[in-house]
Design goal:
Blueprint (H helix, E strand, L loop, with lengths): L6 E2 L5 E2 L2 H4 L8 H26 L17 H29 L13 H16 L8 H14 L1 H11 L5 H4 L3 H46 L1
Antiparallel strand pairs: 1-2
């Protein structure tokens, strides 16, 4: 979305940048999608901040963060807690917007914890603050938000690679086994959320935009 030429989403399918910037596309539920994107961006900013706090500013997947001696049970427990807070946000998004956006099938929210229900009011207040003054019916705002969201989501990718690679990245190798396993499970669940919730509506919108773009190109060629 930020590249001037676009990018490949498969080895053969290249999506030009113009697909996302073309006008006249009829995308549905733009206000709700903007709200979802904004709250996820805010939550990922927190994850990024805590990652720097606990592991340093380097890339955790290549061991460029803090030294192994700086990581102990206290840091591991705190990091696992922050990942759980992010998952509560994910559950809240599905609980409040899943039905409206037609997403989240197969993603099981942890409603038994009681956190999703109580988080609904917090979500509403946070969204009002985050989206104050923004045009919530603007496709351009939506696309800009998606670009920011996917850029910020790289922090989850870094940590997932770090804990799942073989051998395990030094920072996660320093975790007590139970916290390392717990962090891995939480990161995998965050990945599942993006696959079954975020990418579901993004790919659906991209398909509509691609169809419109192809029809425009066919018209240009015919002329």
């Amino acid at each position: 979305m930020t590249s001037k030429t676009g990018g490949y989403i498969t080895r053969r399918l290249h999506v030009p940048q113009e697909v996302w910037s073309q006008g006249g596309a009829k995308l549905t539920n733009i206000p709700e999608k903007i709200r979802v994107v904004e709250v996820l961006c805010s939550a990922l900013e927190d994850i990024q901040s805590w990652s720097v706090e606990y592991f340093g500013a380097g890339n955790v997947s290549n061991g460029m963060g803090m030294g192994i001696g700086s990581i102990g049970k206290k840091e591991a427990e705190a990091w696992a807690s922050k990942l759980e807070e992010f998952l509560v946000v994910c559950d809240g998004v599905v609980g409040n917007f899943g039905k409206k956006l037609g997403v989240g099938e197969g993603f099981v929210t942890k409603k038994s914890s009681g956190k999703v229900t109580s988080w609904g009011g917090k979500l509403t207040r946070q969204l009002d603050k985050l989206t104050n003054g923004k045009n919530l019916d603007s496709p351009a705002t939506y696309v800009q938000g998606l670009a920011k969201l996917f850029n910020q989501a790289q922090i989850l990718d870094e940590h997932t690679k770090a804990v799942c690679c073989q051998p395990i990245a030094p920072l996660y190798a320093a975790f007590p086994p139970e916290y390392r396993t717990g962090s891995e499970m939480k990161l995998r669940r965050a990945s599942e959320f993006f696959a079954k919730v975020v990418l579901t509506f993004v790919i659906r919108d991209m398909a509509l935009l691609l169809d419109k773009y192809v029809k425009k190109c066919e018209k240009w060629l015919a002329e």
